[in-house]
Amino acid sequence: MPYESPQAAAVAWLAYPRLANDLDSHTLDWLFDEGSLTRRLTRLSHDHFSVTPLFEGWQALRDDECTALGLAPGAEGWVREVYLRGHGQPWVFARSVAGRSVLQRGGLDLETLGSRSLGELLFCDQAFIRHPIEACRYPQPWLPADAAHAGLWGRRSRFERAGLDLLVAEVFLPALWQADKEDHR
């Protein structure tokens, strides 16, 4: 397993109302923006956006992922981990998962995405419904070694289309905050 730990510390995924008074409005805007993150990163990078796959394959899903997808603990699923890059720098670590049985009958071939953005696919298909965004301080052991920082904010949401559920988590890396700060000067 690539960047896996034992179930890591219990993760409290929180909805907007639980964080609204604790975070600055700028961070909240990034965490709870319901638009396409791919499009937002493309704008911020002035079209110097790319996706770098890190891992794609079948593996046992984490307990928090199984719970969010309504799967039995330890269920196997498709896992896709990528960096979303601006100007070649990793800005976001993204982990997308779906249960095996749901994917096999759901008609979505995640294995062929390669360096294309899953977000664009989800936002271009009007049949997908996005469930509420949740955010947390993403556990450092769940990040790739070269991006492992403590205390990074991450978010996740479940996308649903005719019984096909995908859970997409995105972790905002320090280089993103720096690029965003420079863009607002």
From TrEMBL:
Substrate binds at residues 80, 118, 170. Its EC number is 4.1.3.40. Keywords: Cytoplasm, Lyase, Pyruvate, Ubiquinone biosynthesis. It is an enzyme of class 4 (lyase). GO terms for biological process: pyruvate biosynthetic process; ubiquinone biosynthetic process. Pathway: Cofactor biosynthesis; ubiquinone biosynthesis. GO terms for cellular component: cytosol. It catalyses: chorismate = 4-hydroxybenzoate + pyruvate. Gene3D superfamilies: Chorismate lyase-like. InterPro entries: Chorismate--pyruvate_lyase, Chorismate_lyase_/UTRA_dom_sf. GO terms for molecular function: chorismate lyase activity. Its main location: cytoplasm. The keyword Thylakoid does not apply. It is found in: Cytoplasm. SUPFAM superfamilies: Chorismate lyase-like. PANTHER family: CHORISMATE PYRUVATE-LYASE (PTHR38683:SF1). Belongs to the UbiC family. Removes the pyruvyl group from chorismate, with concomitant aromatization of the ring, to provide 4-hydroxybenzoate (4HB) for the ubiquinone pathway. This is Probable chorismate pyruvate-lyase. The lineage of its organism: Bacteria, Pseudomonadati, Pseudomonadota, Gammaproteobacteria, Pseudomonadales.
